[in-house]
Each structure stands twice: as C-alpha cells, then as structure tokens.
Amino acid sequence: MKDPFYKNGLKFSCRRCSFCCGHGPGFVYLSKRDLSELCKFFKLTIKEFVEGYCRWADYYGGTKVLALFEKKNFDCVLWKNGCSAYPARPVQCSTYPFWSWMVNDKAVWDDCAKDCPGMNQGELWPAEYIDEMKKKYDDNKPLYKEEVEKLMEEEEKFS
C-alpha cells in the first residue's frame, strides 16, 4: 500500500477565523454521540435540542439525517464569536481539517487550504494523529430521522 502524502505529517493551527463554522452553506451532521454530548452540555432533552438547534438534511438515497441549523448568513447555530459548545462540539468539528476526503490527496488538501488560513501553517501533526482523526470522522455516522424519532420516543417514556 502506498504511503499517504502526509506520511511526514501536516501543518495546521486554527487561526480562529471561523470560516469552517460559516460563511457558506454546509452541513454539520450529528451522530448519536454528538447529540448526546450536546444535550448534556446545554441541559436539554433530545426533543428540545432538536427543535431548537437542528434541521433535517437530505442525505444519500433520499433519506434525511440530523444536522445543525444554519443562520441566514450560513454561520452555524452554535457560533457566537466562538463555538458556544466547544467542549461538546460535534466530531465533525473536532476532527477538522483531518477529514478523510480532505487528506486523501495533496491536491485536495491544498485546494481546501485556500479557504483555511490555518492549513499548511503552524503546528506539525504526525501521520498517526491524522489517521486517528480520519477514523474518528469516518466512524461518526449521522443519525437518520427515524433513529432520532425513536430516541425521542424512548426519552419521553422514561421522563
């Protein structure tokens, strides 16, 4: 198997520019882990969190998955001069920019770096860490609408 282009690591230091948190349309998909952590952080039920912070996003095969709501200017609903849920932020956010599709190819990485002033700058992250973040990102599957509805039903039974 061929070594990844980042075998000697990649440089990244967040510049807190917030570009990855808004400025253009996008999706922050939520997994079961993400939903649980955010509900605990905000001290909300699943239903309260979903109704206040989420939307249903079109996904593969005509399905719907849970995603964070975007403000009219495309900023993430959690963005308030910084992430208002930073300690509980979704895996998608905490693994950025080491997403599998971004580190698959140097040309893609460099293209993404055009929008992120922290990429190719600052701290050198070893290949092992990048691989760990890739796996975490890939394993973090979004919740389908039916799964969220079932979680809400179960929560209601036990409250």
Write up this protein:
Helices cover 38% and strands 13% of the residues. It has 159 residues and is of the alpha+beta class. Strand 2 and strand 3 form a beta hairpin. The chain is globular, with a radius of gyration of 17 Å. The termini are far apart. The mean pLDDT is 94.
Per-chain topology:
Layout: E1 10-12, H1 32-42, H2 46-53, E2 54-58, E3 64-68, H3 91-94, H4 100-103, H5 106-113, E4 119-125, H6 127-139, H7 145-157
Antiparallel strand pairs: 1-4, 2-3
Pick out its properties.
159 residues, single chain, alpha+beta, two-stranded antiparallel sheet, globular
| Total E-strand runs | 4
Q: What percent strand?
A: 5-15%
Gyration radius, rounded: 17 Å
Mean pLDDT: 94
Low-pLDDT stretches are none
Q: What is the number of helices?
A: 7
Q: What is the assembly state of the chains in this entry?
A: single chain
Roughly how much helix do the residues carry, as a percent range?
25-40%
Query: Which term fits the overall shape?
Result: globular
**Secondary-structure element series:** EHHEEHHHEHH
Q: Termini separation (Å)?
A: 52 Å
Which class best fits the helix and strand makeup?
Answer: alpha+beta
Q: Which strand order do you get reading across the main beta sheet?
A: 1-4
Question: How would a textbook summarize the main sheet?
Answer: 2 strands, antiparallel
Question: Briefly, what is this?
Answer:
The chain is an alpha+beta fold. The chain has 7 helices and 4 strands.
